[in-house]
Specification:
single chain, 340 residues, alpha+beta, Beta-Lactamase, Arc Repressor Mutant, subunit A, five-stranded antiparallel sheet, four-stranded antiparallel sheet, 19% strand, DNA-binding, DNA binding, Sig_transdc_resp-reg_C-effctor
Length: 340
């Protein structure tokens, strides 16, 4: 069973043109052997592990509680995606803050969790919910059997989003003001446009600011000592454009009852290039070389700064061209920076 499912998932991943289509098809395939009643599959910033672009199907009664759901997810240490090393279930559901304070009341009896992480970073996490019964060891083994290939596929899909940006971006930065329990109380005029493009809503519905809730929840988690990662996430918008979303308390003393400000703006060249390098699987040395190139250095200057010979720099460049699907320094920088 494991091998057949893993092979089908591998084929889906190899053919998928984007991360959302990939996740939808994989969930349908997994559901054939690991039944579940609801799910949340989010992509993450590879460095901060903060979530973005969630693909979710949860009970309708839980939708009004979305801010609480995300906040509790980030504050829960049980099977937190930042510490998972393999698929896991709620062996003792009462140990989960999220289950005790929210999921139990909606009939959820177990959650199977897994994380998609490799040496280049964390690319996403998946929670499968079951309302009635628990996940079994063999079912968790199925999830483990597909995790490695899916991690590479998710990273590849992210790499494919780095193209030359088309036309002017949305006006920004924009700001949302949230209460301590993550309810949006105020926002700048262009915020709706950004949120609608970050997470396209169903027809006639307002966009759900899940990415905003995620960075705010990470801020709360960092303040509580649950996880030290910074409350920021870089997210693909559209047309090769990437945004950075950050959260901070408005009160300089960091009072827990102070409002939370969330900002959304286009990634800086350095922020964008860092994700690009990870998504394309560049080595630390190749990433360092890319940083020099984006600063305008030529081969001779790069060689001197990195204590390499010009021939070694050229060898690194050939490897980088192969990994990024480019054939020239200009094409490489266009993809990394999003400029023509």
């Amino acid at each position: 069973m494991y091998a057949a499912t893993a092979e089908r998932v591998r084929r889906i991943g190899a053919a998928a043109a984007g991360s959302r289509a990939l996740r939808e098809l994989v969930l349908a395939e997994i559901g054939r052997v690991v039944p579940f009643d609801a799910h949340v599959w989010a992509l993450t910033d590879p460095e901060t592990s903060v979530g973005t672009d969630p693909l979710a199907a949860v009970p309708p009664a839980l939708m009004p509680a979305l801010p609480q759901l995300i906040r509790l997810k980030y504050l829960t240490t049980t099977n937190r995606w930042t510490s998972l090393t393999g698929a896991a279930r709620l062996t003792n559901p009462a140990d989960s803050l999220l289950w005790r304070e929210l999921l139990a009341a909606h009939g959820v009896t177990d959650v199977a969790s897994t994380v998609f992480r490799d040496r280049h970073g964390c690319w996403g996490f998946l929670d499968l919910w079951r309302t009635g019964g628990t996940f079994t060891g063999p079912e968790l083994a199925v999830l483990d059997s597909v995790t490695a290939s899916l991690t590479g596929d998710l990273r590849r899909c992210q790499a494919q989003t780095f193209t030359v940006t088309g036309g002017p971006g949305p006006a920004g930065p924009v700001v949302l003001l949230l209460t301590p329990d993550l309810r949006v109380i105020e926002q700048t005029p262009h915020t709706h446009e950004h949120l609608a493009r970050l997470l396209p809503p169903d027809a006639g519905r307002q966009p759900v600011p899940a990415g905003v809730y995620n960075v705010a929840a990470q801020l709360v988690a960092a303040e509580a000592g649950v996880d030290p990662h910074p409350p920021s996430v870089r997210a693909h918008l559209a047309d090769g454009r990437w945004l950075t979303v950050r959260a901070a308390r408005l009160d300089a003393t960091g009072r827990a009852d102070a409002p939370i400000a969330v900002t959304i703006q286009e990634c800086s060249p350095g922020e964008r290039t860092a994700v690009f390098a990870r998504a394309c699987g560049l080595t630390p040395r190749e990433t360092e070389l890319l940083t020099h190139l984006t600063a305008g250095a030529d081969t001779r200057a790069v060689a001197a700064d990195m204590f390499l010979s010009p021939n070694t720099v050229q060898d690194h460049l050939k490897s980088m061209f192969a990994k990024t699907g480019t054939n020239s320094r200009r094409a490489l920088l266009s993809r990394a920076l999003g400029t023509a």
